[in-house]
Design a protein that fits this description.
Structural class: alpha+beta
Distance between the termini: 15 Å
Largest sheet: 5 strands, antiparallel
Strand order of the largest sheet: 2-1-5-4-3
Radius of gyration: 22 Å
Number of domains: 3
CATH topology of the largest domain: Beta-Lactamase
Strand content: 5-15%
Number of helices: 18
CATH architecture of the largest domain: 2-Layer Sandwich
Helix content: 55-70%
């Protein structure tokens, strides 16, 4: 089972038999097929929140030799990567599921922070998703993996995306084990390639793309590395303080005034220090991240007319889609010739040059963060001729895509 259509058929059969939501994900991280019943599918949180969780996950960073379980906002999922001649052909995701229903005292703190109008739909979501105990979820994931990959998995293997190692007794053993764990997960102290992408979105004020990418890297995921083993809370605070310093610097590079950026940084660091739980630390970090991004975006918007701003936003959100001059002109209600001249005047690049640059920037992220073949990356980004893609890449970066991948490569889980 190594083609997207086959995964889609299998996913539909699984959903029909078990009633569990199933998603089929294209290697380009878009949802290819979705199977979920009513009333779950019509819940507003499912329509946005769940779909964002599913489409935002970095499936390609995980090997295809076992299923992987992960949790987002108390919702559990597992996925299996399917390969076609060693290439990622697609991903089958089952979930969300829950291990227990919400009740008095459970999640009360989180729910109290919600506006009353939002509380009922969220509770309804948690009450409607399938209830599946951990042992049954594990067994189901092993069965699905075997059906797709025709490979059995070690019964003792951990299937958790963020499963910590057992604490060794000796201190040297502890540090060696932590380093080993970092190598196996493919993220050595917050993977510099991911960090670059995150900071790029801060620098350019791209809120929507930041939201999808950051979902995996804010509090609660052990891939960040560990700075203080004795206290998880202290460790997370240290990491977030370091993160705010990096975000502050990126925001300044993006045009935010230094004094404003440092004042904002000091404010959020003080807020972090006053927090008493991991959830509170995560909430402060999320707020800080988007506050910086929004302020950078506001500064950058001041440089362009509303039509060019709309055009830039459309390009950022549709890098994998149709970005022809005619479509963009229709989107901003201008004639193609007028838009072309206005864009060149305000941005300093022609529309085609700007789109090329942004698509090459996206290609750089895929080359650094994934094992996708160069030909696939070129096709997804509308370079239908691989030779032309290489030529354009070399024009902007001074090197070939494969050479860039070698220079940027960090240890990561290989697809095999």
């Amino acid at each position: 089972m190594n083609k997207l259509p086959e995964l889609a058929v299998f996913g539909r059969l699984l959903h029909d038999a078990l009633g569990v939501p199933v998603f089929v994900i294209h290697p380009g991280r878009r949802i290819e097929a979705e199977y979920a019943g009513n009333p779950l599918r019509t819940n507003p949180y499912f329509a946005s929140f769940v779909r964002e969780q599913v489409s935002g996950y970095e499936y390609a960073l995980y090997a295809a030799d076992q299923p992987v379980h992960f949790t987002r906002s108390r919702l559990q999922y597992f996925f299996v990567n399917a390969l076609d001649e060693e290439r990622l052909a697609g991903t089958l995701v089952l979930g969300p599921i829950v291990q227990e229903r919400p009740h008095d005292g459970l999640w009360s703190e989180e729910l109290e922070n919600l506006h009353a109008a939002n509380r009922r739909p969220l509770l309804d979501l948690y009450e409607k998703v399938p209830l599946l105990p951990p042992d049954r979820a594990r067994a189901l994931s092993l069965m699905v993996h075997y059906a797709i990959r025709r490979q059995s998995v070690d019964p003792a293997a951990s299937l958790l995306a963020d499963s910590p190692l057992q604490e060794p007794a000796a201190s040297k053993g502890e540090s060696d084990a932590e380093l080993s764990r970092g190598r196996r997960s493919g993220l050595l102290h917050a993977n510099l390639a991911h960090e670059r992408v995150l900071l790029h979105y801060v620098r350019t004020g791209e809120r929507e793309r930041m939201r999808t990418f950051a979902m995996e890297f804010i509090i609660g995921e052990d891939e960040f590395g560990v700075l203080a083993k004795r206290s998880r809370l202290r460790s997370e605070k240290n990491l977030m303080i370091t993160g705010i310093a990096l975000i502050c610097r990126a925001a300044v590079e993006g045009g935010l005034h230094e004094e404003d950026a440092f004042t904002l940084s000091d404010y959020y660091i003080q807020q972090l220090e006053e927090m008493g739980s991991l959830q509170e630390v995560g909430a402060v970090m999320t707020k800080a991240l988007f506050d910086f991004v929004d302020r950078v975006a506001q500064v950058r918007r001041g440089h362009y007319s509303p039509s060019v701003q709309d055009c830039l936003h459309e390009i950022a959100s549709q890098l994998y889609g149709d970005l022809s001059l005619g479509r963009l002109a229709e989107r901003v209600h201008l004639s193609p010739n007028y838009l072309s001249g206005l864009f060149k005047k305000e941005v300093g690049l022609t529309l085609s040059e700007y789109i090329q640059r942004e698509r090459i920037g996206e290609a750089k992220k895929l080359l650094a963060l994934t094992d996708y073949p160069v030909a696939d990356i070129a096709a997804w980004l509308s370079f239908h001729d691989q030779s032309y893609f290489i030529k354009v890449f070399k024009k902007w970066e001074g090197t070939t895509p494969r050479a860039y991948r070698r220079s940027e490569r960090r240890p990561m889980r290989k697809l095999h």
